[in-house]
Amino acid sequence: MHRPRKEMIAETRAKLIAAARHAFGTIGYAEASMDDFTASAGLTRGALYHHFGDKKGLMQAVIAEIDGEMALRVNEVASKAPTRWQHFVDECTTYIEMALEPEIQRIMFRDGPAVLGDPAQWPNANACTASMTEHLTKLQEEGVVVPELDPETTSRLINGASSQAAQRIANSKDPEATSKKAIAAFKQLLEGLRKKP
Amino acid sequence: MHRPRKEMIAETRAKLIAAARHAFGTIGYAEASMDDFTASAGLTRGALYHHFGDKKGLMQAVIAEIDGEMALRVNEVASKAPTRWQHFVDECTTYIEMALEPEIQRIMFRDGPAVLGDPAQWPNANACTASMTEHLTKLQEEGVVVPELDPETTSRLINGASSQAAQRIANSKDPEATSKKAIAAFKQLLEGLRKKP
DNA sequence: CAATTGGCATACGAGACGTATGTGAATAGG
DNA sequence: CCTATTCACATACGTCTCGTATGCCAATTG
């Protein structure tokens, strides 16, 4: 049987990604020594270079993993809303909630862009924006949202506002109070998208 | 006379900041070798460590300089608007225009946050947000903007959306067309802040 | 004019990265 | 069943960059 081989490889990749994710998410990408975190996974840089090419390649893999998890979570939570508009708003607020996680902030919003450039052009990490874009398009077709906007552009801007909201909450002395303020301001901005009666 | 001395020092600092700004803005912070860009200014790392402590310290100085320039420019351009709301909107769009500069994108929005953390907590680099916050407060007093929002929180969210807009335009194949779309979407979001009649 | 400060350079050591090479186990073919 | 080959991963080495400790020379001060 040729299963054990494949399984070992998958396990090695998973261990490297997990170790890197932890290191990147805590001390940050620049401070994370490849020797250190590969060792913490019981491996060496040899394995890293073999599977991911270099440190950036591993960062890409980590980001792809996180993006997948986020998209899953967003769809799962938001799909319970009664109206499509509400679904859309829930999607955004869930996104903000997830962005409160220090690991996600650090990797997706701080180090990620510095290492890999504009997130809009990341290869395997646009599931969240894709979903939001889709909903915006349908909301326009249904006449809920003003029709003259480009959906993807709009969802990118919303993404920017979301991540700022999350950062503000996360770095606040009083997260509860700040959360209320930030979500309120965010929803108010979203109101601008709705067609007036 | 003790002028030449002080002047030489100021010149050295200025040369280091200029060289670093160029290096950080083109190849990026991580790739910029201190030996290289100090040499390009006719100096060595000795001068850098003496004046700025370390690479991060120099990054702070570069950012403070850019922030000052941006605040100056924003106020200058926007102050010509007829109404306060228009002034506010102009402020935002001017901000977006400035953010198109690759050097500003790279230093202020990509590398800066990765190196120094949350921009909201940078010591000498909040002139733009401060000005926007002030205008939002006055617009609320005048009854133009809905009163229940926290001005600083709101301006941070707008900042996030602005920088996304700028990135989207800057990385576009067709900047003219993208610019129209992004500014339109942005203004639409701002409409959400206005009190309805 | 002598003493001292301080701006800046040089020298040295410590990591961190990338590459080239080695090794042992799993797989494939006869 | 045996051999050859592939390939996952480790090791070794050279290079680069950073931080610190030290030294020197010019400008200032008394």
Topology record:
The structure is a homodimer of 197-residue chains.
Chain A (H helix, E strand, L loop, with lengths): L2 H24 L7 H6 L5 H8 L2 H24 L5 H15 L3 H15 L10 H15 L9 H20 L4 H17 L6
Chain A binds a DNA duplex (30 and 30 nucleotides) through α1 and α3.
Overview of the molecule:
- The structure is a homodimer of 197-residue chains.
- The first copy, chain A, has 197 residues and is mainly α.
- Chain A has helices spanning 3-26, 34-39, 45-52, 55-78, 84-98, 102-116, 127-141, 151-170, 175-191.
- The A-B interface holds A 28-30, 109-111, 113-115, 117-118, 120-121, 146, 148-150, 153-154, 156-165, 167-168, 171, 178, 181-182, 184-186, 188-193, 196 and B 28-30, 109-111, 113-115, 117-118, 120-121, 146, 148-150, 153-154, 156-165, 167-168, 171, 178, 181-182, 184-186, 188-193, 196.
- The structure holds a DNA duplex (30 and 30 nucleotides).
